[in-house]
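call fold(seq) -> tokens
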Amino acid sequence: MVMLLVYDLLFLLLILHMNKRGAGWDDRHRLALINGALGFFLVLGPLTVGPQYPVMYFSNPVFLFVLGLIYWKVSKRYSSTDLEPKLRGSI
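ret:
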């Protein structure tokens, strides 16, 4: 358990060092972290709990769809050649 904590802290320090303490991050990077973390649990959650929580079979696809809509909205604000966001409105 302690080794896992040390590993996570070292990995976090490496990420912070590589992106200049978060200065190089924009909405796309933050959204990728959120989608990765939530998507993992939303997909694997129903597979691991079985029939214990049957509502997960209906709610998790809705949450994944909402995450997809947020991704689509954020990706519209950025083009592949322009690194500045196109501010058309808030999320």
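The first helix runs from residue 2 to 18.
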